[in-house]
Amino acid sequence: MTEPLEAGATAAPDPNISDEDFEAFRPGHGGMGPTVLQMLPALVSGGVERGTVDMSRAIVQAGWRSLVVSRGGPMVRELERIGATHIELPVHSKNPLHWRATFDSLVDLIHRERVDLVHARSRIPAWLGIKAAARNRVPFVTTFHQRPAASNALKRAYNSVMVRGERVIAISHYIAERLLADYGLDAARLRVIPRGVDLELFDPDKVPAERMIRLVNKWRLPDGVPVIMMPGRITAWKGHKLLIDALAQLERGSFRCLMVGDDTARPDAKKALEAHAHASGVGGYVHFVGRTDDMPAAYKLANVVVSASLDPEPFGRVMIEAQAMGRPIVAADHGGARETVLPGETGWLVQPGDAGALAAGLRTALSVDEDARAALSAKAIAHVRRNFSRYQMCARTLSVYTEVLAARGCERL
User: Where in this chain does the record put each Glycosyltransferase subfamily 4-like N-terminal domain (predicted)?
Assistant: First the structure.
């Protein structure tokens, strides 16, 4: 059995172990292991959702039982294909009129399904889940995914439920430090578990040319022109406008920029960004292509991947996915990027919010010769495989579950 991890511990590197190998966590009596209930607002897209699905797969592969509560979404089908059970409840709702009925349903669900542990990944679900878990006398664990945003007392009070778990999982050391400083969290309850990437999916050797050609044709990319890619949904703090300002400082026609990510939730914001690109003289070189169902192929098309977030990223899954695909990163020098990007070795960190610094980073990345690029690619792939695999993330989280359940005397371990 994997030993419980102390706060601040680094992932145990083992790139040779399979993502499917969770035998060490199987219950010793040969029966069904504990039942874990994960809670999040929805299963649409994003890092929280991906982490939930990844953990559900690990829970099932360990011989445990995985339940997930959310309002639903397209990723429910993926969840159910791996053997987890989804229960639709409005745990996303901020309307107090819904809370009592949802809480009662949760209390009944935890009792009826003999849930052994509740794991909340977002604030409204956590406020409901902590009380429902207490009513059933089962342990409560949280993962702090979001930006701490503890600049005012009201926000701190709203976030505070996320540090009230028997164990609190921080997705980066940046988040862990903020939780200790801003919330007075007891370090003994804190575990740092970086997000993990699926090394089978994000493997450049497993993306055939046909998949790349499909995207080239779909996005009408010209031959021989370097591609700058910024993955991420359209929201102001992600820095799309800043990237456009940086692109305006590059030579016209020397690049194509793909903004890859959900742009349906805020159509006015997308239109404003497109207008800004045209006004800046780069409208013909910037393409908002929306979501894609093949991010590995998208990354493989890129010459450089950008993370231009104006506020610190809590972790930044894009950065490890891109590096897993051997692609250099240019990222803002704050937050999780400082833990995932090796400056000058797997990418470059630039002054946050500075279009000139971002433009300089892009020029450097695009000017790297073929040999240096190959060396950077190899180092980036090795870096992610050594430190940020999906297996490591899931095994360490299962260790946290085991630690908490053992302390409670769970008979199904």
Answer: 46-200
